[in-house]
Amino acid sequence: MIPIKFASYAFSFVMSFLMSGVVSLTMMVIELETLAEVLSAWPYAWIVAMLVAFPFSLFVVPLTHRLLSKIVSDK
């Protein structure tokens, strides 16, 4: 199990892993013509997307939490 002090990092990793996978696959399907092209190009695209998404999510997730805490009412 992951200690609670690393929860924000784990959340950012899992969220960016899933989102970068879905987005990179979507872009490959849109851009490429055959399933073979998609399946051969997608792993590299996913790795590149993950290398961008994970560090970015480490910045964006806390910012989003702060923003939402200001605009969401607890009533």
TrEMBL record:
Residue ranges crossing the lipid bilayer per the database entry: 7-30, 42-61
Keywords: Membrane, Transmembrane, Transmembrane helix
InterPro entries: DUF2798
Pfam family, one: DUF2798
Keyword Transmembrane: yes
The keyword Transmembrane is assigned to this record: yes
Tree of life domain: Bacteria
Protein name per its UniProtKB record: DUF2798 domain-containing protein
Organism of origin: Alteromonas arenosi
